[in-house]
Amino acid sequence: MAFIEVRFPADIAYGSAGGPEYSTEVVITHSGYEQRNSNWAQARARYNVAHGLKTQAQLDTLIAFFRARKGRADGFRFKDWTDYQASGQLIGTGNGSNKVFQLCKAYNSGGSVEQRVVSKPVAGTVKIYVAGVLQSVGAYTIALDSGVLTFGSAPSAGLAVTADFEFDVPVRFDTDRLSASIDAYGSHSWTDIPLVEIRV
To answer: Whole-angstrom Cα distance, residue 5 to residue 119?
Structure first.
């Protein structure tokens, strides 16, 4: 359905658990060798926000947020406190004619690189550099709903375009039902409130 450009309450997100996941099929032969088939080229994040609920006010906010999103129907922004910043990220190299670049974040390990498209930058946090020189805000526009950067004038050939920014993860609830229990002392107990990243 729709994607609503609203952020899940950051104070509840702060206590959440989760992170990236992949889909891999593992086939084990009779001799014990394995054949592994990776179904996804990039990770997709999954979270459980039940652990972030500490107060009645947070609970009230969550219930209202859940009802407004109609369970799994509508997507929204989520701040992953373990991974929400990028600094000095190379997003492209000028060729003298290209004005449009996509924000992204590179994850490097052992010579392997996974490039993550960043489609939900946070307003007021984006800084763009060309050949290491900070660009004035009027020199470009940034689409906060897609992460697409557009220059007024194309960067010259060979000049690196880099960026600093914060970003949210596009997610949805992965349940259509909230379930809670209240003990004798009036405290609430939640076992699972899952969120899953969506491709946008």
So the answer is: 11
